[in-house]
């Protein structure tokens, strides 16, 4: 939660909702492999 809030400080306010949703999928992943896959997807967008 705190990591997501901190990360959103660097995001334009118009894009925060979409970025927050993507970050939640990364931080809420059940396994390391799922988190890495979500991170790669986030980085490619």
Automatic annotation (TrEMBL):
Required for the transposition of the insertion element. This is Transposase-like protein. One of its GO terms (molecular function) is transposase activity. It comes from Tolumonas osonensis. Keywords: DNA recombination, DNA-binding, Transposition. It comes from the Bacteria. Belongs to the transposase mutator family. One of its GO terms (biological process) is DNA transposition. InterPro entries: Transposase_mutator. Pfam families: Transposase_mut.
